Amino acid sequence: YGSTQTAQEGSNLTAGYGSTGTAGSDSSLIAGYGSTQTSGGDSALTAGYGSTQTAQEGSNLTAGYGSTGTAGSDSSLIAGYGSTQTSGSDSALTAGYGSTQTAQEGSNLTAGYGSTGTAGSDSSLIAGYGSTQTSGGD
């Protein structure tokens, strides 16, 4: 109840109460209550309550409650609760709760909880919890 949802052609949308969501064509969107979610065409988005997530075309985004995330086209983003994550196109980002991470185009970033990291384009960054990491391009 109290939710506003739009499911486009060929999409699958499941949402809790008080949520706002848009599922693009041929996409899958699952969202908890009080969340705001947008999934692009051919994408998959699963998010906990109170989160704000955007999964662009061809991406896969899974996030815990209270998190904010954007998954670029053809990217994979997995984030714990209370985290802020951005993954560029063709990138892979996996991060623990309470972390702030940015994975630029073509990069691979894996980080523990409470960490802050930026992985430059086409780079690989692995960071433990509570750390601050920056990797340049390539």
Task: Outline the secondary-structure elements.
Elements: E1 4-7, E2 12-15, E3 20-23, E4 28-31, E5 36-39, E6 44-47, E7 52-55, E8 60-63, E9 68-71, E10 76-79, E11 84-87, E12 92-95, E13 100-103, E14 108-111, E15 116-119, E16 124-127, E17 132-135
Parallel strand pairs: 1-3, 2-4, 3-5, 4-6, 5-7, 6-8, 7-9, 8-10, 9-11, 10-12, 11-13, 12-14, 13-15, 14-16, 15-17
Describe the protein.
Pfam families: Ice_nucleation. This is Ice nucleation protein. With 138 residues, the protein is mainly beta. It has one domain: Alkaline Protease, subunit P, domain 1 (2 Solenoid). Helix content is 0%, strand content 49%. The chain has no helices and 17 strands. It has a nine-stranded parallel sheet, with no helix packed on it. It has an eight-stranded parallel sheet with strand order 2-4-6-8-10-12-14-16, with no helix packed on it. The chain is flat. The N and C termini lie far apart (48 Å).
Question: Which terms summarize this structure?
Answer:
Ice_nucleatn, flat, 138 residues, Alkaline Protease, subunit P, domain 1, 0% helix, Ice nucleation protein, mainly beta, eight-stranded parallel sheet
